Amino acid sequence: MSRQDVINVLNELRSLELASIIQYMKHHYEAQGMESPAISGQFKDSAMDEMRHAESLGERINYLGGEPTKQPSEIFTGGDLRKMIADDLRVERHAIGKYREYIELMFREQDHVSRLMLERILEDEEKHEDTWITDLARQEAPAMA
Ligand SMILES: [Fe+2]
Ligand SMILES: [Fe+2]
Hints:
Blueprint: H1 3-33, H2 37-63, H3 81-108, H4 112-140
Helix pairs in contact: 1-2, 1-3, 2-4, 3-4
Bound molecules: fe (ii) ion (FE2) (2 copies).
């Protein structure tokens, strides 16, 4: 695997992060209108985590001599709160799959600095996944009297 291949992998992940930032910020504003302050705050906090991830990836790409991408991957917005959370959960699960795959790849390539960075990001993505699983269960639970 060449250095350019490593840069391409990191840029693929950065595209996912850029899409997540946009998706979470949009959901943050939309949820404000739905009077869901708790979930609206979770969307904002998640967006800020994704910004840190995009920045870490960008710095590593830059260090390796590449150009950090500005191109987000696909963005899912719109619908009610339940759909937003379901979209976010799906996106996080997709990201988790990619991070796990590329952590293995970086290990095989013995790029342990990149691997460690991806492992730290994966830890955040698993927390995001857990947040949306919990929120989705709350959305589906029968209303308490
Ligand atoms: Fe992220
Ligand atoms: Fe995430």
